[in-house]
Amino acid sequence: MNIAVLGGGVAGLTAAYYSAKKGHSVTLFEKSAALGGLAAGFKAPLWQWALEKTYHHLFTSDTDILELAAEIGFKGIFFKSPSTASLYEVRAGENSILKQYPFSTPFDLMRFPLLSFTDKTRMAAVMAFLKVSPFLSFYEKETAHDFLKKTMGKNVWDIIWEELFRKKFGKYAENIVAAFIWSRIKKRSAQLGYIEGGFQCFVNFLSKRCEELGVLIRKNCSIERVEKRRKGFIMNEQVYDTVISTLPTPIMKSITKDLFPHWYLTQLSRLSYLHAVNLIIASKKALLDTTYWLNIEAQSFPATVIVQHTNFVDKKHYGDEHITYIGNYNDEKNPLMKMTKNEVLSYFLPHISRISPAFHKEVVRTYLFKGPFAQPVFDKTFLKNKPQMETPVKGFFVANLDMTYPHDRGTTYAVKWGRAVTKLF
C-alpha cells in the first residue's frame, strides 16, 4: 500500500517506521523544517546538546519507547533521581513569602507541615492504593475532585491538589475524571530518564532508520486538505491508499472537513484543549538550588511549573549555562498567547524575583515556544467524543495525543499508538 503519515513527531515517525517494516510505501509529511513535534530540540551556539522546546523526561515504566530504542539500536538513554518540590505561599508575620517544600520521597510527605498527621497518613494510603491498582471503571464515573476529596479528605484536596489541577486545567479543574490522577500516580517513578544529546538525537536516529527502510520524509510540507476519491485519498495532487494522522485533532478536523461526515466533525468539535506556553531562560546562575521539578502551589505565582533542567542534566552540555523552563497551560483567551518573548519575560520576572531577588541580573538569553492543543481536557465530554484510531472513513486512521488517555502526554505514548495503528491494516 501507499501510505501517507501526517505529522513528523515521535508518533508519526513510529507509524512510518513500522509501516515501512511491513513493506508498505510510506511518505511522511511535516510542516516544520525539523522533525520531532513536541519533542523537537534546538541548540544555542555554545551548546553541545539540543534542548527540547517543551520540557521532557522519561520514566522507568516507559516501556514502549525503551523497547523501540532497543529495536532500532539507540543506546543513549540514562536515568537519574532528581529532586522535586512544591512552592507554597505562607504567612511570615504580616507578610507572605514563597517557600519550597521537598516532595521527592514518602518521608518528605510525612515532614510536610501544612497537613496534619491524619491527613498525611490518609493521603499516603490512597496513593499507595492507586499505585498498585489496575485501571478500574469507577475512575471514569467520577471526577478527580470528588474522588480525592472523598478518599483523601477536603484538607488534602485544598492544600495539595486543588491548585495543581487549577494550574494544569484552568476552568476545567473540577471536571477532570479520576482516571487522570490514577494514571499520574500509577506511572510516576523516582528515577527519571533523559537522552544523551537531547530528545532530538533520538528523533534524528529514528528518522534515519525510517529513511533506511525507504520512507520519504517531506519537511516544510503542510497538508491543507484531504479528499477521498474512488482510487484513494488525494493530498497535494498525490494519491494514497491509507492515511495516518498524528496531528492534533482540531488541526486534523480543519483539513478533513470535506472528508468526514458532519456528525463525526461535530463530535470532534466538542473536545477542549489547552495550549502550552514555555519560557526558557539561560542564565549564569540557577534559579533553583537543587530542585529539578517545582510544582507551583502558590496562587499568586501564575505558572504551572518551574523546571530547572540543569539540576537534572549537567550544565556542561549547555556551555555551562543554567537552563530553566517556566511552563504554563492556557486557553486561547489568555494574554500570554499573544505576548512576545520579552513581554513574557517581563510578566514573570516580578514573580521569579520572589524566589531569587537578583535573578534578573543572571539572565543571558531567553526563548519562547508555544505548543497549540498540547493538553487535551480529560473530562466526561472527552470520554464521549474522543476519536478512536479507526475513523468513519475506511483507510483513514488517527494516532495522536488524544490516544494517550488516561495518561498524561509523553513520548512513550507517542511510540505506543504510532506502532498500534499500523496493526490495523
Description:
This protein has 425 residues and is of the alpha/beta class. The protein folds into three domains: 2-76 and 197-271 and 378-424, 3-Layer(bba) Sandwich (FAD/NAD(P)-binding domain); 105-187, no CATH class; 273-376, Polyamine Oxidase, Chain A, domain 2, CATH 3.90.660. The chain is 32% helix and 25% strand. The chain has helices at residues 10-21, 63-72, 106-111, 117-132, 144-151, 154-169, 178-187, 199-212, 249-255, 262-269, 341-352, 380-385, 411-420, and strands at residues 2-6, 25-29, 41-42, 51-52, 58-59, 77-80, 83-92, 95-102, 192-195, 216-218, 227-229, 232-235, 238-240, 242-245, 273-283, 291-296, 305-308, 322-330, 363-376, 396-398. Helix 2 (63-72) crosses helix 13, helix 4 (117-132) crosses helix 7 and helix 5 (144-151) packs across helix 7 (178-187).
Features:
alpha/beta, Polyamine Oxidase, Chain A, domain 2, 3 domains, five-stranded parallel beta sheet
Query: What fold name goes in the CATH topology slot of the largest domain?
Result: FAD/NAD(P)-binding domain
Estimate the strand proportion.
15-25%
Biggest β-sheet strands, sense, barrel: 7 strands, mixed
Question: What's the mean pLDDT score?
Answer: 96
Using only C-alpha atoms, the radius of gyration works out to 22 Å
Which outline best applies? globular
> Structural class, judged by helices and strands?
alpha/beta
| CATH-level-4 superfamily name of the largest domain | FAD/NAD(P)-binding domain
- Count the domains: 3
Number of helices: 13
CATH class of the largest domain: Alpha Beta
Give the beta-strand count. Answer: 20
**CA distance, first residue to last residue:** 10 Å
Supply the CATH architecture of the largest domain: 3-Layer(bba) Sandwich
Name the poorly predicted regions.
Answer: none
